[in-house]
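Continuing the series of single-chain predictions for the mutant panel. This is the parent chain; the variants come on the following pages.
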Amino acid sequence: MVMITPTHYMLLSAALFMIGVIGVMVRRNIIIIFMSIELILNAVNINLVAYSAQLQNAVGQVFAIFVIAVAAAEAAVGLGIILAFYRNKETINIDEMNLMRW
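Parent structure:
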C-alpha cells in the first residue's frame, strides 16, 4: 500500500499552479484567464490543507476557507464585469479591453 505524503500534495499543487500561471500568461480569452486564476487559488488551498493536516493544526483549513470565499467573490465580480463588457464591445478578448485606460 502506498502512503500519500505531503510531497505528493506539493507536486500536485505545483502542477496546478504552473498550469494556472501558463494559462494566465498565454491565453487571451478572459474566461480562460479567470479559470486559470481559480486553478492557482486551488493550488494554494491544497498546500494549506495538506500542511494543516501534517501539522495537526486547523489554521491552514481556516485560511483555505477564506481563500475559497475570496475566489467566489472574485468570480462573481469578474463575471459581472465580463458580461457588462461583452454587452458593450461584443468580444471577450483581453486585447480589446482598454476601456479603463486614461
